[in-house]
Amino acid sequence: MLKTMDEVKSFMDREWLATFSTINTKNEPCVIPIFFTYYDGQVYVQTDRKSVKVRNLLKNNSVAIAVYREDEAVIIRGTARIVDNEEFIKRTQEHIDKYGLRLDEQGRDSMGIPLFDSKVRCVIEVTPKRFVFWG
Q1: Which of 9, 13, 17, 23 has its CA 20 to 30 A from that of 68?
Q2: What does the pLDDT look like over 32-62, one tens digit per residue?
Q3: CA–CA separation, 72 vs 87, rounded Å?
Q4: CA atoms of 81 and 132, how far apart (whole Å)
Q5: What are the E-state strand segments in the chain?
Q6: What CATH architecture applies to the domain 5-134?
Q7: What ranges do the domains of the chain cover?
Q8: How many CA within 13 A on the CB side of residue 117?
């Protein structure tokens, strides 16, 4: 069972898949799987700038993330924002490094997604307001 923030950090550093919840314009939850990185108490998600999660958080920045493995979970409730400039580059590189992604000469992943093109991609930063430990 996770109890300390050091244990949470260790857990979050090892895991890579989570569920990400936003609120849509009808005030309904929208839950999708995501890959994430965790750094200095923040969660980062690399995504398409036109994605539903981005559209939702621009209207309501309250989000929740659940990261789980077997009988342990960390649930985070917080607020989200889009990061820009050098922070976008830094967080994108961390995402690439964590997952061992290989990019072509144009900075595209194996699916042809241009990860460093800030007109197409963005990074969501989640600032936790509350952690819930389960397990």
Answers
A1: 23
A2: 999 999 988 999 999 999 999 999 999 999 9
A3: 31
A4: 21
A5: 17-23, 29-35, 37-39, 42-48, 62-69, 72-83, 121-134
A6: Roll (2.30)
A7: 5-134
A8: 13
Task: Give the Cα separation of 35 and 17 in Å (integer).
Answer: 5
CA angle 26, 16, 32 (to 5 degrees): 15
Lookup result for tokens 């964590």: 98
CA neighbours closer than 13 Å in the CB half-sphere of residue 125: 16
- In angstroms, rounded to a whole number, what is the distance separating the alpha carbons of residues 48 and 123? 9
pTM > 0.85: yes
Strand extents, DSSP E, 36-98:
37-39, 42-48, 62-69, 72-83
Tokens 């969501």 identify what position? 124
Quote the tokens at residue 110: 């194996």
